[in-house]
Amino acid sequence: MSNFSAFLDGENKPLRVAESHIPTPGPNDIIVRNHAVAINTVDPAQQAGFKVARYPTVLGHDLAGIVHEVGSSVTRFKDGDRVLGHAWQFLTGQAEDGAFSLYTRIPAGNAAILPDNIDFKQGSVLPVAIDTAARGFYDTGFMGLNLPTADAKPNGKVVIVYGGSTSVGVAAIQLAVNAGYRVIATSSPRNHDLCREAGAADVFDYKSLSVANDIAKSVGNDQFVGLWNTIGIPESFDVVTPIMQKLSGGFVANTKPSGPTPENITVKFVLGLGEYSYPLWEHWITDALASGKLKALPEPKVVGKGLESLEHAFKVRNGDVSGCKIVVEL
Ligand SMILES: NC(=O)c1ccc[n+]([C@@H]2O[C@H](COP(=O)([O-])OP(=O)(O)OC[C@H]3O[C@@H](n4cnc5c(N)ncnc54)[C@H](OP(=O)(O)O)[C@@H]3O)[C@@H](O)[C@H]2O)c1
């Protein structure tokens, strides 16, 4: 049995598919035979040299597949389990930890069981989005939300998700709603149904001139907890700042490092990878997927099959992506 990987040999080099060894698990790792991988904006950015520790390397974060081997201390998984998970090459710099291989090593703490009614391509859309949303909600110094549970009751608190139709936004909506928060989201009208399917109570078009007023009205007398700005780019604050001003300031979790911080608003950059999300993966995601409380959204858009398709998938990812996640089947 052998492995194949899409190697990156240097900045802006094309991916090179070649044979590689099947990784060995550490005590707390699992080895996954990947059947679908999703593409994130960071993947083509890494191909262009962003935060690559050494070459050759293997990129990729989002995966779904079948457990091939478990480490000596792993109890939640066994060989043959269907799983989804988040690969850690961005932090470890190790080629074995990149998702763009047939076999990848990931921490067991960053994986969950994929139920039989959710296929691999659907499962692969979630891990990065969940971990990014989770950092803004749960890690020390961020919003301090309660974790989701199986039977959360409305708690009278409101979270705003700016960019509710991004994959990070869809995950943020689902996490907050499953912990009892009311979620107000923004997106283009074409994606309002997606935000509602994820659980948003109200959705507004961020291009509407009345969006700040509409959101403030929707918050009403409920307690405003914070805004997740999944778009993060400086221009997004043209809309986010007036919303926050209507609510007299507060906390913004941001997918991009922020520039000068608007008055009365704390803006904090999120890196969506780390052990902070282990409690979610270990205690909630498996059951929530099985019960349907956590949906595999947005829809995967499969743009190829095989590691050779990744180069094309990166190009698609660098174009206009709306209401879906770009996926390659393996
Ligand atoms: N820091 C991290 O660890 C981390 C991790 C993952 C992602 N990210 C970043 O987070 C962002 C979201 O990633 P994603 O993959 O979840 O996104 P995505 O699914 O590709 O989101 C695309 C959607 O973003 C919305 N959008 C694009 N430009 C916009 C703008 N100027 N104003 C408002 N909405 C806009 C559009 O929604 P509509 O079509 O509804 O208008 C578009 O459909 C990206 O910038 C990504 O680089 C960061």
UniProtKB/TrEMBL annotation:
Keywords: Oxidoreductase
UniProt KW Oxidoreductase keyword: yes
Residues annotated as domain Enoyl reductase (ER): 10-328
Superkingdom in the source lineage: Eukaryota
Any one GO molecular function term: oxidoreductase activity, acting on NAD(P)H
Classification via SMART domains: PKS_ER (SM00829)
Family of this protein: Belongs to the zinc-containing alcohol dehydrogenase family.
PANTHER family given in the database record: HYPOTHETICAL OXIDOREDUCTASE (EUROFUNG), ZINC-TYPE ALCOHOL DEHYDROGENASE-LIKE PROTEIN C2E1P3.01
The protein's assembly and partners: Monomer.
Protein's recorded name: Enoyl reductase (ER) domain-containing protein
UniProt source species: Cryoendolithus antarcticus
Organism ancestry: Eukaryota, Fungi, Dikarya, Ascomycota, Pezizomycotina
